[in-house]
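Work Package 3 (structural annotation) set out to generate three-dimensional models for the target panel prioritized at the project kickoff. During this period the team completed the workflow that converts sequence records into discrete structure tokens, so that structures can be stored uniformly alongside our sequence database. As a representative example, we reproduce one entry of 425 residues exactly as it appears in the project archive.
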Amino acid sequence: MLVSFEYLGDSLEFTLSSEPSDETPSRRGFSKSQKFSYRNTNGKKFPETHPDRLALVAIMNALPFTGRKLKINWPISEKFLESSNQSVSRIEISAASTSQKPISRIANGRPALLFSGGADSVAALSVMPPSTEPVFMLRTKRPWIRSLYDSDAAQESCKKLRKLGFEIHIIESDFEYLRDPIGFPTDLSVATPAILISESRNFDSIAFGTILESAYGTSGEKFRQYRDSSHFRLWHSLFESVGLGYSLPVAGVSEVGTAILCRQMALGNFHQSCIRGKWGKPCNNCWKCFRKNTLMQALDGGEFPKDAMMMLGKSKEVRKRLLEDRPIKHEGVLSYSLERSLGGGPEVDLLRDLVRVGKIETDWMNSWYSESSEFIDHSYRGFTSKKLRETLGEMSAEEISHLQNWENKNDEIRENILSRLTKLV
């Protein structure tokens, strides 16, 4: 795979050219779209950045579609070339030359946050320094392609934060059309707009709203040490190699905790997790709405929400998640919510049995896992840690034990409950 780029006024365009060594499009999910671009929505000229950072953006988007070799068609530094080849072992990365000097981390820079407008990213913003600049990636719409995604709520959140004095950046991109079916090439492709404007905005680090369930694996079958994961080793080293910190300020906060932060912190008023509805009018038909609505009601100690009850019967997506996923994504959070909300009828009682309500400990989800502070950028680690201690408190030794011993594996008992639940809903 050969990658090149060109600045075009308010835009930056990359071109991917397949070579014989690359996998076939059908096998690798590579669409016919071999160009992807970024556009500055404020109409200003797209800022230039260091060639190594351009190369990192290229890798983040081209990696899944590259067979054996990826050639960066511009000069980069020897340092980045060595780092990328050490980190990305599956392919060989080369460049037009290695004549560029490497870029170092800027002193006294400012942090950036990948912003979505949802609870997790707003919670992250609420515990980061006031100098933080949120960066929202606006997905390019193509009229001939049907999509349920609606950016209205996220853009409204950006407007409200801007009125509060935040420097918000909205960069439009179409990189998700590289894939067939449509989707982000890598899970961190969403960071590429912030990387591209990092030099012009003096960013020294880029933060993500990644929560505990994702970082430590409790959304799935068992707890993992994130520091030992290939995901952390890959992206941390690549970000460091281009002078940027890779930061996860809420990696020790569960989805329960980010909901609590949004309730306690003033910025929490400016979030909406549903990405299909309009601002103030979530779709109340998607898996995220089901999970978030149930959690909100649980935090109030109220009845199982009526809209969630309707979703059980009418939403194909909710039914699919509950009846087909093994384990259910973020099942622990659902256990927390169902344990603390009342009623719902026989269907919800069976769902409680399925997610082990009363059999597993979930109180730890209220608090901050302080060992995660190692993933907060050193420039504001103290600031963020203090905020988290003040709002959520630290997990006790017993709660940490419950977290680290988390397991959620399927068995015959669960299959029997699932069979009964399937008949009811």
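The longest helix spans residues 287-300.
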